[in-house]
Design brief:
This protein is mostly helical. It has one domain (11-121). It is 74% helix and 0% strand. It contains 5 helices and no strands.
């Protein structure tokens, strides 16, 4: 019998990459919308009332986290950063924007899972 050649890819590793790619696929386009000045984003941040500088900061954080989550060494920290942004979005959705907030819960669960499965990669 032939021995199977192990590529080092198991279910856990594939699952982690699925979570990473999903997280990046959510936040990188959102960052692009904010940073490119889409009218919908400008209006949303006008409603929030903190000024357009906050749109840029949020977009930069989303872009940085979206890229970091794809880099194995920084992925857990990227997920934590994006989770903080997501919590802010949740608060804004329920308190100011009065829009659908369920998606922030779902995204938060994805980010929490992304962090949880990689938590051992964060060294003291």
């Amino acid at each position: 019998m032939e021995k199977a050649i192990s590529t080092g890819w198991n279910g856990k590793k594939i699952g982690i990459w699925v979570l990473r790619i999903l997280s990046a696929a959510i936040f990188i386009p959102a960052a692009a919308m904010k940073l490119s000045g889409q009218p919908m984003m400008i209006a949303e941040f006008d409603t929030i009332g903190l000024g357009q500088w906050f749109r840029y900061v949020t977009g930069i954080l989303e872009l940085a986290g979206g890229i970091a989550v794809l880099v194995p060494r920084f992925s857990a920290l990227g997920a934590l950063l994006l989770l903080a942004v997501d919590v802010g979005a949740f608060v804004a959705q329920i308190s100011i924007l009065h829009m659908d907030w369920i998606h922030t819960i779902v995204i938060g669960a994805i980010l929490a899972a992304t962090f949880y499965v990689q938590r051992s990669s964060i060294k003291a």
